[in-house]
Specification:
The protein is an alpha+beta fold. The protein has two domains: about 10-110, Pseudouridine synthase I, catalytic domain, N-terminal subdomain (Alpha-Beta Plaits, 2-Layer Sandwich), CATH 3.30.70; about 120-230, Alpha-Beta Plaits (2-Layer Sandwich). Helices cover about 20% and strands about 35% of the residues. The protein contains five helices and eleven strands, in the order βαββαβαβαβββββαβ. The strands form two sheets. Strands 1, 2, 3, 4, 5, 8, 9, 10 and 11 form a nine-stranded mixed β-sheet that branches. A two-stranded antiparallel ribbon has the order 6-7. It is elongated and about 60 Å long.
């Protein structure tokens, strides 16, 4: 029988990373497993949980949506020995194309976890209209959306509406802000900035915002640029 761990990890790192093409469809568990692989391959002393089946102490700040480009995600990693920055960078160099280490910072153990502090996420959404699209019409649609008191929609905690935890909910509280960044009327294409609430009750989705605008719009590309926090983690400052 394996002996239970009693000592605490000696060091905690926050890793800022991105996920881009060709790994946009890589699922969350696969991302965690890939990080575990490169950290172990680099010989880093990953700390493990005290569970019956120990798992490496790796925690994402927020769930990773499939198909969305990610620019500023946070993974917290705990180690049993002190690890210098150059070894973290060496592990990051082992990541496959589509995953990249952007930055890393050692964090005091007493600082709240990034996952406990997430309050929202900021997205850039590129939309296209099959019909004429004017700046006046798009800005008007955004104003009308933000002016709505309720926005009935489907609860979707998973990646499909066929899950058992789906159901009706009011989507409006999850939408903090929508802004038109730019519009190309000739190409019938626009860039939107969307800020969506993210907390234990659920999270807003960019596609819900696009569908809620009273214009015929299709989403071409979605980028989650950064996470927003109640108390911003050191790596995101």
């Amino acid at each position: 029988m394996a002996k239970a761990r009693t000592e605490q990890p000696r060091q905690r790192w926050q890793l800022l990373f991105s996920r881009t093409d060709p790994l946009l469809r890589m699922r969350q568990q696969q991302v965690i497993e890939e990080w575990e692989r490169v950290l172990r391959e680099a010989g880093l002393p990953l700390s493990e949980s005290n569970a019956k089946r120990p798992r490496p102490r790796l925690q994402l700040a927020a769930n990773l949506p499939v198909g969305v480009e990610l620019r500023g995600e946070i993974l917290e990693a705990h180690f049993d020995e002190l690890v210098p920055m150059d070894r973290i960078e060496a592990a990051g160099a082992l990541l496959p194309e589509g995953l990249a280490l952007v930055d890393a910072r050692e964090v005091w153990h007493g600082f709240p976890s990034a996952a406990s502090q997430v309050r929202a996420a900021e997205y850039e959404v590129i939309v296209h209209s099959p019909r004429e699209l004017s700046e006046e019409a798009l800005r008007g649609a955004v104003v009308r959306l933000l002016g709505r008191a309720r926005l009935p929609g489907m609860r979707r905690r998973g990646e499909t509406q066929r899950r058992a935890d789906t159901g009706q909910r009011d989507l409006r509280p999850y939408i903090e802000d929508v802004e038109v960044l730019s519009i190309d009327e000739a190409e019938r294409r626009a860039h939107l900035r969307v800020v969506l609430r993210h907390d234990p009750t659920g999270a807003g989705r960019p596609e819900d915002v696009v569908h809620a605008l009273d214009l015929p719009l299709n989403t071409e590309r979605t980028i989650r640029r950064r996470l927003l926090f109640v108390d911003t983690p050191p790596i995101a400052r």
